[in-house]
Design brief:
mainly alpha; Arc Repressor Mutant, subunit A; 0% strand
Length: 220
């Protein structure tokens, strides 16, 4: 007989797989309990509702990454890094925990990404709760980047932060564009080499001077 903790873990594993493979809307609670081999009462006991289950599926993957990112962020701050060293440290603190999960458990990252992509087109309390999983961590890093790059305006820093997130997204979740021949060579890079390439790229991008407006006929 399964222990309560084992039952909960089984339900989370099955729900994660079905939400990613079949879609959240197409997956019913009965689909989940059938594959997990438990009764309906178990899912209500552990989660209470489908939305609560979805949120815990996401939180189970996001929170450990957030915790590791914050630990590394604190290391940067405790070591009194400044200037380029602080910038590189912050980028590594944000990037490396996710890359490590990607290398160790690639399916887990893909499943989480597919679920998040479905949720971002929703609305209501569930979407707000999912965003809340990321919000505090992002605020902490944004404040740290502000100290590292005081000459950038909040708008410029926000834009560059989004560029970083977009870069990580393209590398880590491997969207369909990776199938284009021009991107095929990337898969041959070792994870540590890939990491250094991304860090070098992001350090240069974050640390570049603010561009000056271009003048010409196209800007009239």
């Amino acid at each position: 007989m399964q222990q309560p903790k084992e039952t909960k873990t089984k339900l989370l594993d099955v729900a994660e797989k079905l939400f990613a493979q079949k879609g959240i809307d197409a997956t019913s609670l009965r689909n989940i309990i059938s594959e997990a081999g438990v009764n309906l009462a178990a899912i209500h006991y552990h989660f209470g509702s489908k939305n609560a289950l979805i949120l815990e599926v996401v939180a189970r993957r996001v929170q450990p990454i957030n915790e590791e990112r914050f630990r590394r962020l604190q290391e940067c701050e405790n070591n009194n890094l400044t200037g380029p060293e602080l910038l590189e440290g912050l980028i590594r603190a944000f990037l490396e925990p996710l890359i490590r999960v990607k290398v160790e458990t690639p399916d887990r990252v893909q499943y989480t990404h597919r679920i998040l992509m479905q949720l971002q087109f929703g609305s209501g309390q569930l979407l707000e709760s999912v965003f809340h999983l990321f919000d505090e961590n992002i605020k902490r890093f944004f404040a740290a980047f502000t100290k590292a790059l005081p000459d950038l305006s909040p708008a410029e820093l926000s834009l560059r932060f989004r560029f970083m997130v977009g870069t990580i997204h393209m590398i880590v979740v491997e969207p369909p564009i990776k199938k284009l021949s021009m991107f095929s060579e990337m898969s041959k890079l070792q994870p540590d080499i890939l990491m250094e390439q991304i860090v070098s790229f992001l350090v240069a991008g974050f640390g570049s001077e603010s561009p000056k407006p271009q003048t010409g006929v196209n800007n009239k």
